[in-house]
Design goal:
Helix content is about 0%, strand content about 50%. The chain has about 170 residues and is mostly beta strands. The strands form four sheets. A six-stranded mixed beta sheet has the order 13-12-11-10-9-15, with no helix packed on it. The protein has a five-stranded antiparallel beta sheet with strand order 8-7-6-5-14, with no helix packed on it. A two-stranded antiparallel sheet has the order 1-2.
Length: about 170
Amino acid sequence: MLKALATLLMTGSLGAFGMSIPDSDIAFANQPFSLSAKPVVELSQSRDAELLYLCETTNGKLLELYDLGDTIRYSFGPPNNSEIVLDVPRHEASTYQWAGVGRSIHYSVSVPNGDTIYTVFISQDRLTEGRPVTGGVDVYINDEYTTSVYCADENIISNLEGVDLKPSY
């Protein structure tokens, strides 16, 4: 089982995210907070799995994203009982990487499933005092926005910056 606590740092002017797993606190934009959610997807088939994203949503479900090498795994649902687990070939997933301009620092990974696309995201407002962080998943069906499910708070583990996928537009 993956370690549920990490340190996520935002480096000032470039807005770059880095991830390490030494401690029990998470710091985002130099503001520490702790993570209560525990990942539920066992990755025993791949020792090279990389946690890209983890948060507990406002409805108490876990939102997880893993890079398994040839596939990207999206998981959503209650702890120990995921409702959705998708293993999508890497070439079908895509990413949006912040270009370094604009009010919000934003990264996302989109995972398709037939006519549905799940876009996992993290965003930070650079101009609001306290630099609030939001994250979650946007759901699109037939290329039309359907809904968003948000992370319960800023307790988000994100390693979306620099993920090697084709670009989203």
